[in-house]
Amino acid sequence: MTTFTPPPDTAAWQHLAVRTGFEVVCFRSPPDGYRVEGCTTAVEEGEAWVVDYVIELDSGWATRSARLESRSARARRHIVLEADGAGHWRVDGAPASWLDGCLDVDLESSALTNAFPVHRLRLGVGAASPAPAAFVRAADLAVERLEQHYARLPDDGGRQRYDYAAPVFDVACRLTYDESGLVLDYPGLAIRAA
């Protein structure tokens, strides 16, 4: 089983290729899990946008809530996702049955959220698992179901590696993580800056 060191107080990623921008997060450790407060600012396809978020995770790293706000020249939006930790969700207070079975939130605007299933699953080398997620779009905060899959590879120089796939986006790549289980390199999307 995989073990991780505690997350750092802060982390940051520089976005590449798909968008130009930056993400910064701060970790808090209440007694019953983690609270992540973050912000991504980016320019994508000529449009500048900002997404602020606060995500609450239980002690097993399953998402319990996510509060997001996006701002762009077109609009300002807010959304609240709540999860019971057993795969049932509410979006802005309404049941979201299309997310049944998801235990993680995955933000399109974030490199951080790929840490959640890795922490929650704690896969040993050679193990693999599906990890469907409540996927939140950056521009309009639309919530979709995202089917994704993680497969643990042997470590490389102390860095954990996973083959990651999200077929709906035609994404298949190798993600590299640090000892605290945060993404160091997401090919074509982001690299860890701090």
TrEMBL record:
SUPFAM superfamilies named among the record's database cross-references: PA1994-like
Protein name: Glycolipid-binding domain-containing protein
